[in-house]
Amino acid sequence: MKTLKDVISLKFKTSESEGVIFHGEGQQGDYITLELKKAKLVLNLNLGSNQLGSIYGHTSVMTGSLLDDHHWHAIIIERHGRNINLTLDRHMQHFRTNGEFDYLDLDYEITFGGMPFSGKPSSNSRKNFKGCMESINYNGNNITDLAKRKKLEPSNVGNLSFSCVEPHTVPVFFNATSYLEVPGRPSQDLFSVSFLFRTWNPSGLLVFSNFADDLGNVEIDINEGKVSVHINVTQLKKNRIDISS
């Protein structure tokens, strides 16, 4: 395929911060890759470079953040030659690709949800997408519908299910004045806690617990963007342990 114009749109939701959403490449060095990196959306595009190195076509654009939140996000990529409109959740970013070429020359298949191993350095360190996609449209082709009706030739569908399982986790929102108090286990000598959290505040208390029999306490907090654990033990000479990350 050698195209001057491209329109690619889809919706996705995921809990993973890394993953290839779609990828295509050609024998002449052209490629297009849309992926999640550190929960941000990254579009890598190359309409061609020359062997002399005087024309360098690689272009990379990043948009969005915290996209691994189990919510649906909508993407539209509109390309006319070197002019690109990248829209994420109605926020549009316009840019021009590097280089001097206008056509995207893809010789191989386009893959959604991952990329095949091509032997190139770009292909082996990238994770496949984990989550749900819907309304995948590539240059007027309804990919989701064609895949479901098995009308894509050639195609390697892999282990797909045409349903989206909702996560079983239940989030709790705190408004900076609220807190959740749960009963402890005074008969056990093991303290164990695990949780996922997301915040825009650089400082705040995450967990606090007193030990039984006035033996001390444990405190987990965020201080200027760093997570710290403070353990106070009343019966020891070195009675305070501080760990931060």
UniProtKB/TrEMBL annotation:
Residues 1-164 form the Laminin G domain. Pfam families: Laminin_G_2. It comes from the Eukaryota. PANTHER family: CONTACTIN-ASSOCIATED PROTEIN-LIKE 2 (PTHR15036:SF33), PIKACHURIN-LIKE PROTEIN (PTHR15036). This is CNTP2 protein. It comes from Steatornis caripensis (Oilbird). The gene is Cntnap2_1.
